């Protein structure tokens, strides 16, 4: 009855997490990411498929002076197993962490005999081990031939997956379901259910410089226009969306009317409609600011992670995870999350996704990040069971 028990090697999982976490993979650390990608390509080579490293898509950002600059990223790992199968799923994870190469948090420390502290142990090198060992256990079952799958481990999730979002959409297409290996929402294993969305914007305001004493009326003050924009943006907040003006850059000497300002802000729409309504309102707002201040504006960015509602098909996948958990003596619950991840982008492709299939742990994105070590094998058993059920026809 239980096709997957007894085949998960907890010691091997822990050894991999320790080795992977010892390599710094801050999203901007291209050397570290390349080293990690090679380690992961090697590890995932045990699966009966093809392993490939895919170049990142080009990403532009706006510099403090308003100019566009290209941001380099690491390569993404893609594994394809039985691509001809009728039933196929997508499994995703990320190899990058929020800790840059020069951050103080680089080492692993045992907190007690079941808890390890270290960069990325929960978010999500532990999750990558859960995914890999679940797939290894699944491959040992009689059902394996009935399911194909793609694995994506991207290098840029922590900065919004701008260099991998097209790849995510390409790999999600035609899939029955997706599993993403972010750590559980709570240390007890609770899953993240619905998620809001997020968008990041840079607005370049271009005015006209002039002498602050001789001819100030001939200038067009970009900072004043940007300040007006900030106040009017904040006024667009509602129940369905929060708006956070985060950074205003620009200006020059005290005796110069500044001709450039760059405003950065983040939005958190709760619904797809709220995000679309904001973009529409922003267009009008920029036109009004241009008219009121005699400036030009350029808008860069937008919603990068759409809100993730849980529709009927996605709920079936949650119910399947809970049922599999019950069979293994694991009480699986879920709750709404304020965070975002690649699950948002997968759901936007119309594919049911549970995006917190990774380890139990906590304090992620901080030097207190920890992994509850026994959860490695526990969550791998859960995932293996879910994948086996999907192979046997659940959801299809
Ligand atoms: Zn993560």
Describe the structure using short key phrases.
396 residues, alpha+beta, 4-stranded antiparallel β-sheet, 33% helix
Give a brief outline of the structure:
This protein is an alpha+beta fold.
Q: What does the model show?
A:
- The chain is of the alpha+beta class and 396 residues long.
- The chain has nine helices and 18 strands.
- It has helices at residues 10-21, 30-44, 121-139, 165-172, 222-234, 272-293, 312-327, 342-348, 375-391, and strands at residues 50-54, 59-62, 68-71, 76-81, 88-94, 109-112, 115-117, 148-154, 177-180, 191-195, 198-206, 241-250, 260-269, 296-305, 334-337, 353-354, 361-362, 370-372.
- The chain has a six-stranded mixed β-sheet with strand order 1-4-8-5-9-16, sandwiched between helices.
- The two termini are 21 Å apart.
- The mean pLDDT is 96.
- Zinc ion (ZN) binds next to helix 3.
Gyration radius over CA: 23 Å
Strands ordered across the widest β-sheet: 1-4-8-5-9-16
Bound molecules: zinc ion
Distance separating the two termini: 21 Å
- Helix fraction bin: 25-40%
**Can you tell me the residue ranges where pLDDT is under 50 for at least 5 consecutive residues?**
none
Mean pLDDT: 96
Strand content: 25-35%
